[in-house]
Amino acid sequence: MAGSSLYQDDDGSGAITDINVTPFVDVVLVLLVVFIVTAKLIVTRGVEIDKPKAATGGDVLSTLRVSVNKDGELFVNGNKFASDPAAVGRIKEIAASSTNEALALGITINGLAILSETPLPWNPEHTNPAGGLTKYYRDNVIGGPGSFVIEAKDFSSFGQAIIKKMIAEIADARGNPATAAR
User: Fold this and answer.
1) What sign has the CA pseudo-torsion 124, 130, 132, 137?
2) Sites in the chain below the pLDDT cut of 50
């Protein structure tokens, strides 16, 4: 009978009545080891790392919440303002006090100015202030030892500018201001 030799003993006397389970047990044991190792990784929710500690600085707690209700009333940190200029003045006070707190703690504030040839129609002073945006950043935004402003000529050069700014900040943090872009 064709193919019947596969199901007979070596001596040809009868059918095979037992199955060799050794390879099956080997595979199961290997899978068990894999599950034990991976279970340990699943139970551990993360990897402990030593985060760097700042030599100076600290938390500057400041909240700025601007809201407008359905009647068009303007609120800054819960206080109602009758006019936009009054609200803008209060926002500038909050920003100045936060800046002063940060500088008092030894925090350096750097800037990244994204230049735009087209001013925003609803607020041209925002994107093109008198004297230029970079001058505005130097006069009103940055502060602290070694602070600087990086210019992005437009939105397409933002990626290069942010990399340049990060390299300058890292170089300055390592005490190598000669390599920082000032």
Assistant:
1) negative
2) 1-3, 176-182
